[in-house]
Amino acid sequence: MPEIREIVTTTPGMPATDGAGVRMTRIIGSPQLDMLDPFLLLDCFESDRPEDYIGGFPSHPHRGFETVTYLLAGRMRHKDNAGNEGVIEPGGVQWMTAGRGIVHSEMPEQEDGLLAGFQLWVNLPAAHKMDAPAYQEHPANAIPTESRAQGAVVRVIAGQTSTGTLGPIVQPLTDPLYLDVELPPGTGFQETLPHDHTAFVYVFRGTLDAEDANANPVRLHAGELGILSHGERLTLRSAAAGARFLLIAGRPLNKPVARGGPFVMNTRAEVRQAFADYEAGDF
Ligand code: FE
User: Fold this and answer.
1) The pairing of beta strand 233-250 with beta strand 4-5
2) Structure pTM?
3) Facing residues of 97 across strands?
4) CA 172 to centroid of chain Cα atoms
């Protein structure tokens, strides 16, 4: 069993439109990359054209998993049918456990300017898909920042780094690690991950150098996702323009996944039940 985490494959996202006409790049949850268990979807949105985002995501349901919104720029207001409401600001994160069901909206709190960020969907184990909905919401100043050698900056959104920095998000069911890493030009980055956790990097600025299983160099450009092999030690280096990327890892659930739009269950019958419950107003 290799101890080193190598890049198994790289994939670009694909342009997608969701909600009421929001343009984005779908990185996980696309025909090319269905899922990376337990991660069901990763969208990246970034635009300073209001027509790309102004429609937002009007009222819609979720059941059976968690949605994680991490904003880089702009503001998003969320509201749900249980009376929860708030605004996510740059550098802030909202980790929403939809559980048995929630109906919410996610709308830009701006009419112009840049809106940029990510939405990640994290699956829940079968025994917890019908748990009560819950939120973990943290502004930028509640997200610890680790300063490493050569000016590397690591924002710890979820989980714990190898040097002990603990992010504010706690989710023992999938034990997620969610890091936003910024490297100046030509800077190395090392991290230790649980051997069997699913892990990937998504580069959103600059260029990142890594190695594949044959020790050949692999270069990840902005907009590319690199799927990592199992293993423990990850070593990356930014190229001449520096790099900024997400490093995300979590424990796979290894169970059947049945998707039906905003519902992600284990069987088709459970998805049909979700639609029936939603239509009956039982969310
Ligand atoms: Fe949603």
Assistant:
1) parallel
2) 0.97
3) 66, 134
4) 17
Task: Kindly state the tokens that stand for 34.
Answer: 């269905």
The continuous run of DSSP H or E covering 278 comes out as: helix 268-279
Centroid of ligand 1 to alpha carbon of 99 (angstroms):
12
Whole-Å CA distances, 240 to 113, 183, 202: 29, 10, 18
**Per-residue model confidence as pLDDT tens for the chain (283 residues):** 558 999 999 999 999 999 999 999 999 999 999 999 999 999 999 999 999 999 999 999 999 999 999 999 999 999 999 899 999 999 999 999 999 999 999 999 999 999 999 999 999 999 999 999 999 999 999 999 999 999 999 999 999 999 999 999 999 999 999 999 999 999 999 999 999 999 999 999 999 999 888 889 999 999 999 999 999 999 999 999 999 999 999 999 999 999 999 999 999 999 999 999 999 998 8
For ligand 1, the distance from its centroid to the CA atom of residue 66, given in whole angstroms, is 9
How many Cα atoms within 13 Å fall on the side-chain side of residue 204?
20
Bridge partners of 9, per DSSP, are: 227
Ligand 1 center to 176 CA (angstroms): 20
Distance, CA 121 to ligand 1 centroid (Å)? 10
Q: DSSP letter at 31? A: S
Question: Which pair of tokens denotes residue 265?
Answer: 């269950």
Cα 187 to Cα 168: distance, rounded to the nearest angstrom: 26
